[in-house]
Amino acid sequence: MSLSGEIDGTTIIELLSLCTGINNLVLLCESNYFEKDTAPLLQVLDTLPLDILSLQMDVSLTPSSIANTNVFARLTHLEITEEGIFKHLKMNAFPRLTHLALWGGPLRNQNGLKLIKHILSHATLQLLLLHVRPHRQLAKFLDINNIDDPRIVLAPCEIYVWDSLGRASMLLWELADEKVKLRVPNHRKHRCFTETTLVNELRQYMDLESVPEQDLDYQVMPCYVVGGSGDEAQLGYVVDDDESDD
Asked: What is the per-residue pLDDT across 190-199, written as a single tens digit (0 to 9) for each?
């Protein structure tokens, strides 16, 4: 199940209470209903047979709130925007966790470096996916600090919902797993894939024509090309070396 957009917190609870067999859940909601009190959400999540959870909304998780629920101990795949929670947690709070996705921008500092090493020490972890834009700066940071682990995959920040039949629900993880299995990194010293790789795989599910594949070093974006004709923006290339991360 995927819930996204402006959904009221009480509606989220009602829907999850009715759909008791969910094992793969994406919460990409704009509601701040659970920002101060996550207990109602954690209580209903605890009743579900979840293996896979993407939690991309304002929630206030603490070590005690995680310890007092069973849902996180059952997860094999977790995607979460609040990477700071792992600074205060022992990874044994996630005994089955094999796949973890975080936003990589905030990790490009010494505290982030410690956190990455802490996460990689988890015995069951097979993949650490880091959402980042642009990816080159984080790749340089990892290289400078001698973090060379084939389980790390850099991925775009954009999130794409499943199609109307629920297909592609595991697409993000599947693409990242393919990079982990490579004998050597696919881009310089790191493993990564572009936004359009994700888009085109989803479009295949939906029987739609593919879009032009992005270069790993350049972004294709609408811009005014010097010397171009007309007033309309044309497709241009920009180097993916911006100093800022999302």
From this structure: 999 988 888 8
